[in-house]
Structure formats: structure tokens, C-alpha cells
Amino acid sequence: MATEERSFKTQDFTVPSNGSGETIQVRISEPNLTSENLGLETWAASHILASQLHHIGPKIQFPTPSSDVLPILELGAGTGLVGVTAATLWKQPVVLTDLAPLVPALDANIDLNSEGLRTANTHMEAGTLDWKHPTTLIVKDQQQPQTQAHVIFAADTIYSEEHPELLANVILKWLVKDKQARFIIAYPLRVCYIDYIREMWERLEEGGMEAFEEGREEASQDLFNDERLVEWSVWRWKDI
């Protein structure tokens, strides 16, 4: 008996757009990619990080557009909630990256939010960036000329013993050496992964970075049933 390999759940996430209580809606579709043995879900860390962007963004100065530096790069983007929110609120181009089987789902979520992107007069793309060989960004089967980014996002991307080293290496290579460049990360405080998080912090600090803003938030119980306590932090180069 044949079984349906792909089904979709679409959900609207409410995200603050300023400190006065105004919000935007980000529409996210979550396909069940059973054929690739991948489940795609929006985790609490993504919603918490997206909800911080309205007050983080005004503190960041973006440079003049360049062919060498991406304004915003998201690693392990999942469903793309953080990147879509950033593009809409910050009015900057964003490239979302994840495993190749997840890229079509990212493209679909970009399309779902096309009206908001047009209003913000910006655009998004999705592609792949291999953390083990992070020299090449591939978008639509084409190698991209950019090898650095001004802002990098990562939400809930640390859940195996190899991730701290891989993620830190990607950040240290891709984040442009600029005093306004930022790495912004969020992760759930799962007890089993705390040591991995500590290792990531140590590797970034050894690489010349510092966390200068951080906080903790608890995600809505109505939306999430996984670990809901999330820590986020904003990083910069220390001696620039």
C-alpha cells in the first residue's frame, strides 16, 4: 500500500516589529520529508531569536552593498523563520542555508512571504554551505562569489559533539572583519547539550570574538512542546 511521503503544515508566527507592541506575521510551511528521513520543524530557538530582531537590528550598521560580502547569512536555517523576519524588519537581503534536501522547503517559505519582502524592498535566496568545507556557497546550483557575511544567524544548530568546532570554524571564516559585523545565535538550554554550547563559546573567544549582549527567554507553551528556555547572544570581533 502506497503511503504519502510528503505532507505540509502551514503556520503563521507572530513576531514583534518594534518595542511598541506592533507585530508582523511570518508564514511558514513545514514539510514532512520522510523520503529523506528528515523532519522539518520550527523550533523554539528560532521563534525566540526572530522575536529579538526588532531591538537588535537598529544597533547594526550595514555597509554599502558589495559583491564580496553578503549582508545576512543564516546557517542551519531550517524553515527560515529567523531569516525571513530579518529580511522583512531590517530590509536587507538574506541568504538562507541548510542541507540540500531542505532547500526546496526554504524556497517555498521565501515565496510564502514574498509580499512582505516586496514591501521591505528586499529579496532572499536559499542554498547550501558545507560546514566541513565552508569555502563555497551554492545557490541554485551555482557557486556564489561571496565568501563573507556582515551578519550571521544560527538558531538551534548545536546538538552533536562535532557541531561546536564546525560552527565556530564557519563563523570565524565567514564573518567579515568589521567592527559592525555580528554573529547572532540562539539555542535551547537542553542539559545534554550544555557542554557543546560551552565549547562553542570557548572556540569563538579563542578566535578573537566576544559576546557583548545576551539574554534568556521562555518560548510559548502553546506553540512549542520541546525545551522552551532559550538563550541568545550577539557576538562581535573583539579587537577591531
UniProtKB/TrEMBL annotation:
Pfam families: Methyltransf_16. GO terms for molecular function: S-adenosylmethionine-dependent methyltransferase activity. It comes from Aureobasidium pullulans (Black yeast). One of its GO terms (cellular component) is cytosol. This is Uncharacterized protein. It comes from the Eukaryota. Coiled coil: none annotated. Residues 1-21 are annotated as: Disordered. PANTHER family: HEPATOCELLULAR CARCINOMA-ASSOCIATED ANTIGEN, PROTEIN-LYSINE N-METHYLTRANSFERASE EFM2. Residues 10-21 have a biased composition (Polar residues). InterPro entries: Methyltransf_16, SAM-dependent_MTases_sf.
